[in-house]
């Protein structure tokens, strides 16, 4: 069975797309007129603003709210997408939360929250939507990880662990789905100019930038361009890879 739907007519679901990297990814796919599903949890107006930007490109856009930690809510989202004929051919598991602090100060609730959003969310979304991809013998699952999932980071043990788990999930699921024509990859950025960096003081930001050979943080659109590339039909032989756009910070 050959998948014949043109790339520009496919549907992409981006979780956590109301801002930052997720918003940039949504806009990149919208630029070629694809059907774009913008997922968010609480940021309704921000998601609508991203949707308006995407619609300027002529894309069909749908915003959906769901807690990625909840199977029930993910299943309700699936029903809505089926009703709108927007079952995703491409899933970008981007929803995530950061955590800073010493491991000795981490509560069990904080640990569970970071694991649930960053790791369980990707599991639930992938499991929920991959069956349609398997049936059509084509699909793309792209997980947004982090450089810290590769190298680890002091005072970000919980976040690093969650993203490391996401990388392992990516590699294993890629092997499981490869016979079905579905690729699974992860993009693991270094420092990116998003709200996640807003908690750092100017001196801290400058210190981080000085460690990066490129001398700066990435812009969200630069991460989005890599996600877009991995979603292309001609990228079908790339699977199980953790690709880290980090300006030479980690080689």
From TrEMBL:
GO terms for molecular function: 3-oxoacyl-[acyl-carrier-protein] reductase (NADPH) activity. The gene is fabG. Keywords: Oxidoreductase. Signal peptide: none annotated. Residues 10-190 form the Ketoreductase domain. SMART domains: PKS_KR. Gene3D superfamilies: NAD(P)-binding Rossmann-like Domain (3.40.50.720). The keyword Transmembrane does not apply. Its EC number is 1.1.1.100. InterPro entries: KR_dom, NAD(P)-bd_dom_sf, Sc_DH/Rdtase_CS, SDR, SDR_fam. This is 3-oxoacyl-ACP reductase FabG. Belongs to the short-chain dehydrogenases/reductases (SDR) family.
């Amino acid at each position: 069975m050959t998948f014949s739907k043109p790339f520009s007519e496919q549907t992409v679901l981006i979780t956590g797309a109301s801002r930052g990297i997720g918003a940039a990814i949504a806009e990149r796919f919208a630029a070629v007129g694809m059907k774009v599903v913008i997922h968010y949890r609480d940021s309704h107006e921000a998601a609508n603003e991203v949707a308006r930007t995407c619609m300027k490109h002529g894309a069909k856009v749908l915003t959906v709210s769901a807690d990625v930690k909840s199977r029930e809510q993910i299943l309700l989202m699936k029903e809505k997408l089926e009703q709108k004929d927007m079952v995703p051919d491409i899933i970008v598991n981007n929803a995530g939360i950061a955590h800073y602090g010493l491991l000795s100060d981490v509560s069990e609730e904080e640990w569970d929250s970071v694991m649930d959003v960053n790791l369980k969310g990707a599991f639930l979304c992938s499991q929920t939507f991959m069956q349609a991809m398997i049936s059509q013998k084509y699909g793309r699952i792209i997980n947004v990880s982090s450089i810290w999932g590769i190298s680890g980071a002091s005072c970000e043990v919980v976040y690093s662990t969650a993203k490391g788990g996401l990388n392992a999930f990516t590699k294993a699921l890629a092997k499981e789905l490869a016979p079905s024509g579905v690729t699974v990859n992860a993009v693991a950025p270094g420092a990116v100019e998003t709200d996640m960096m807003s908690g750092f003081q100017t001196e801290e930001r400058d210190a981080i930038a000085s460690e990066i050979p490129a001398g700066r943080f990435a812009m969200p659109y630069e991460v989005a361009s890599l996600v877009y590339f991995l979603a292309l039909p001609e990228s079908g032989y790339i699977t199980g890879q953790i690709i880290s756009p980090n300006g030479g910070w980690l080689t």
